[in-house]
C-alpha cells in the first residue's frame, strides 16, 4: 500500500511532495482504515507521516525511492537530548534539594548499615529522604556503578521500585495492570505478522507459548509472550556508521533483555564472563530450566541487583524502571521495544519521545478498540 501511494504521490506532485500533501495522504490512510489510527496522538496518522520530524512510512519510502537518483534532502533526526522523552529527560522536581550536609547522616547509614536482615522499612525511609542525592548524581552523568557503591540496591530488594515511584507516582503500576489484557493481543498479532516469515526464533517462541510442558527447552508461555512483543518491534537501522549499521538479529536482541542461568551456577562467574561486553540493563533468569524460573536478577554495569519479583512480568517491569532510576539510555537494538513499553504501556512522555513508525503502527494495532 505504501509503495503504491508514494508512486501515485510522486507522479502527481513530484519527487519531493510538500509536507501538507504527505499529511493529506497519511490522513487518508487512517480515515479509510480506522483500525490503523494511533490512539496516542492527536490526529492518529503520525505512523505514516509526522510533519514535525519528517518521519513515517510515507517519508521513509520517498527517501528510499529518491536515494538512487539524487542526494538525500531530508534532515536527519536530531541526536537524543534531555529535551526528548525517556530516561535521559530532566523532569520537574529533579532540581529540588541539591545534595548537602543535611543528607550526611542518612548517606553514611545507607553505605554501612543495611543488610538483608535489617528492617527494610527503615531502609526505604532513608532511601526516600536521599532520593534528591541520586537524582543529582544522575544529572551529573555518574555511572550506575557509582550509585550502586553508595546505596544498597545490591543488598536490599525493592529499592528500584522506591525511586521509580518518586519519579512517577501515578504511572508505576501500569505495566502490571495493562499487560494481562495486552498479552493475548501481542501473541495474536505475532501470529498474523510474523509466523508467515518463518523466522526460527519467532516460531520457537510461539511454540513455547502454546506448550504447557514444564520440561520443554524453551521459555515458559509468560516469558515467550513478552519476547514476542520484542519480535514485533525488532532492532531498527541506527544510521550509516559501521557500528550503527551492524545488523542485530532478533535472537541477539532477546539476549539483551533476558539471559538464563541454571540453579546452582555462580553469579560472580557469570558477571566475570560478561565484563568484556558493554551492555545496558538486562535480566538474569535463574532456574532448573527456562520454563521453570525461580529467581530473577537485574544486571547493571556488571553488578547483580536482587529482584523481589517472582514472575517474569514483574521482573520486566523492574528492568524497564532501572533505566529511569539510573538514567540509562535504552540499548540501541531495544529502543523500539522499550519506547513502546514507555509510551503505550506506562504512558510516560507521550508526544515528547521520538517514536519510529513501527512503534506507532504496532501501538495502533494493539490498542485499537
Kindly state the percentage of residues in helix: 40-55%
Count of spatially separate domains: 3
Kindly report the spatial arrangement of strands forming the biggest sheet. Answer: 1-2-3-4
- Rounded Rg: 22 Å
**Number of helical segments?**
17
H/E element order: HHHHHHHHHHHHHEHEEEHHH
Biggest sheet features: 4 strands, mixed
Beta-strand content estimate? 5-15%
Give the N-to-C terminal Cα separation: 23 Å
Please tell me what the overall shape is.
globular
On the 0 to 100 scale, the average pLDDT is 85
List unreliable stretches of 5+ residues: 70-80, 241-245
**Which structural class do the helices and strands define?**
alpha+beta
Number of DSSP strand runs = 4
Region (Disordered): 64-101
